[in-house]
Write a structure and sequence with these properties.
271 residues, alpha/beta, Rossmann fold, 6-stranded mixed beta sheet, 4-stranded antiparallel beta sheet, 10 helices, 23% strand
Length: 271
Amino acid sequence: MLQTKDLTIRFGGHVAVNAVSCVFAPGTLTAIVGPNGAGKTTYFNLISGQLKASGGSVMLDGHDISSLGVSARTRAGLGRAFQLTNLFPNLSVFENVRLAVQATRRGKHRRGLNLWSIWSDHGALVQRTDEILATVAMQDKQDAVVASLPHGDQRKLEVALLIALESRVFMFDEPTAGMSVDEAPVILNLIRSLKNDPTKTILLVEHKMDVVRELADRIIVLHNGALVADGDPAEVIASPVVQQAYLGVNPEDADSDAAPAAAPVLNGGRT
């Protein structure tokens, strides 16, 4: 469904993402990991259109979308959630989702914004909004102003918006960042439910390796903007390149009789 070919961006003389080529298939969750400054979020920004690539391309369903802006990529099916929530803070939970549903339907039918079209679609919009709020378990907070919500609920609402926009590719950049121990499982359960849909492609930037091990079907590792490992989570975590680059372990010096090293936390030791 999604592919990057030699995707590259330079800031002056610094190459932040260096010719990264990857294919992401429907029905899979790929975790993108690496230390601070590895290029993970920059790679995300190139895919979703927040940054313009210096070279290479982004393909969706075999079509080159490299020239499209953020909104056009969103309409094409790329849904992006950010480290900081991107919501309408002064509107209610219900209105945030309804507006996303309305925008999606208007985009499909190419209708102009007029009172008659809004009124004629009102019942369907409300019904679909209710369904999405039920999916993310926020019916009881539908009248709450978004700015009054705790951080965990705002992250849930952001997932609701991606569902409302009928995204086929879901991109999560540290979805549990800033969440309490009680809040994090809720967003992870939402991602887990999305993963059960074989038509969805999920990309996840996450530093917490327990989350990565639980959710990921595949891990790719970026280091200094380059792709250095790609494959099964257990194999990638245990690979010499990851052990050496992120744990400072030289495989040749390791004691073969010693117990296996703990799985790395790929962010300079931060959990």
